[in-house]
TrEMBL record:
<protein>
    <submittedName>
        <fullName>Kinesin motor domain-containing protein</fullName>
    </submittedName>
</protein>
<keyword id="KW-0505">Motor protein</keyword>
<dbReference type="GO" id="GO:0051231">
    <property type="term" value="P:spindle elongation"/>
</dbReference>
<keyword id="KW-0963">Cytoplasm</keyword>
<dbReference type="GO" id="GO:0008017">
    <property type="term" value="F:microtubule binding"/>
</dbReference>
<feature type="domain" description="Kinesin motor">
    <location>
        <begin position="1"/>
        <end position="75"/>
    </location>
</feature>
<dbReference type="InterPro" id="IPR001752">
    <property type="entry name" value="Kinesin_motor_dom"/>
</dbReference>
<dbReference type="InterPro" id="IPR047149">
    <property type="entry name" value="KIF11-like"/>
</dbReference>
<keyword id="KW-0067">ATP-binding</keyword>
<dbReference type="GO" id="GO:0072686">
    <property type="term" value="C:mitotic spindle"/>
</dbReference>
<feature type="binding site">
    <location>
        <begin position="31"/>
        <end position="38"/>
    </location>
    <ligand>
        <name>ATP</name>
    </ligand>
</feature>
<keyword id="KW-0206">Cytoskeleton</keyword>
<dbReference type="GO" id="GO:0005524">
    <property type="term" value="F:ATP binding"/>
</dbReference>
<dbReference type="InterPro" id="IPR036961">
    <property type="entry name" value="Kinesin_motor_dom_sf"/>
</dbReference>
<dbReference type="GO" id="GO:0090307">
    <property type="term" value="P:mitotic spindle assembly"/>
</dbReference>
<dbReference type="GO" id="GO:0005876">
    <property type="term" value="C:spindle microtubule"/>
</dbReference>
<dbReference type="Pfam" id="PF00225">
    <property type="entry name" value="Kinesin"/>
</dbReference>
């Protein structure tokens, strides 16, 4: 079993980087009831899932590149 960090590194980070390169991206969880889809996507306070980790990666990227002539818009 992969933990939340490993899943983000293998799946989420690629989606974030592709989005930052201008591609439209989505992550889809599919499987039987009770197999951990919601946990993987949303996680918990102690073990954040893909949504929290991807959002953090976007904001980290934006904060690293902020300057007076930089504009970021999130829709």
């Amino acid at each position: 079993d992969e933990n939340q960090d490993e899943i983000f590194r293998h799946v989420g980070l690629k989606a974030v980087n592709d989005c930052l390169d201008g591609f439209n991206c989505s992550i889809f969880a599919y499987g039987m009831t009770g197999t951990g889809k919601t946990y993987t996507i949303f996680g918990t306070k102690d073990y954040p899932g893909l949504v929290s980790r991807c959002c953090k990666a976007f904001f980290d990227y934006a904060m690293q590149r902020l300057s007076n002539d930089t504009f970021f818009e999130i829709r």
